[in-house]
């Protein structure tokens, strides 16, 4: 009897988040009477949804329903200001799942605790574990933002910031991995795994951690979706044959990856709207001009938005990108980007003459070093 009761209790977290149904978010952020609005942002398929409500005397409420639990963000905008992409506003993550979700703070959203449902209780444990490393990261970012342009231009300063950033990132990865190990039956662990993998996860890193999850998590809708993501990651790992694709160039002509067989080709994912991509473009141009006579070329794949062909063409011209460029102008739904599991840009894949992936995400000085290495001996 005790064993059965114990088994039932151990399964409760998994069973709770497996349910679909209505949810209510009840918030209390102090007792401030100043004008403010709360926004709830979440994904519905591939569409970003944004609900809003007025905060009165610190109180607010959202109601909705879910077919499957999902992660969302709660944001607060004060003084009647509108929410837009250029506005930096306080936000916290929470899970939308059946039940009453409570968001309570003595003052602001920053200090809010989320409770009331199992996944949000689990997520609070993860947030608490990350507190120290996040404070370190924020301190580092403040140091970088307060630096003068002259300081930022110095190589030693940039290298110091990068080294410390990577060290903090490694600490965070250890926290995520430990959380997954300790909470294998929680759906929060799947999101922790995604954060562990970062914007460009390596199959050899994420697969062992994923294998440690409980079968209920693996077999959930989100777990099955991430299995498909891992399969794409595996298919685009170093040493694998690069998945072939065909997409239209700037004149509408179909261009296929296999057209470049026999050459080293850097498949470069970018977009005209992407600041870091545009900042990296001069480096790609430099290396293209240096190595194009040694059986090397670049194939750009743009994630520009629908109806933004003109912006794409202007960026190509302004940045002197003289190599072949392709795009279906579908933004993040770009077919090649989805095929290669691209969730952030810039990213690139260096493909050898035999069609195998030689390297991934080589940028800055690393790109020149890698090309010098692989192209040694080329006529």
Automatic annotation (TrEMBL):
Q: Does the keyword Disulfide bond apply?
A: yes
Signal peptide location: 1-18
Q: What is its main location?
A: other
One Gene Ontology biological process: cytochrome complex assembly
Cite the entry's keywords alphabetically. Cytochrome c-type biogenesis, Disulfide bond, Redox-active center, Signal
Domain of life the protein comes from: Bacteria
The record's subcellular location field reads: Cell envelope
Which residues belong to any copy of the Thioredoxin domain?
A: 236-379
Q: Cellular component per GO?
A: cell envelope
- UniProt xrefs under Pfam families: AhpC-TSA (PF00578), DUF4369 (PF14289)
Cite the GO molecular-function annotations of the record: antioxidant activity; oxidoreductase activity
Instruction: Fetch the PANTHER family from UniProt.
Output: THIOL:DISULFIDE INTERCHANGE PROTEIN DSBE (PTHR42852)
Q: What is this protein called?
A: Redoxin domain-containing protein
Q: Which organism is it from?
A: Spirosoma agri
**Organismal lineage:** Bacteria, Pseudomonadati, Bacteroidota, Cytophagia, Cytophagales
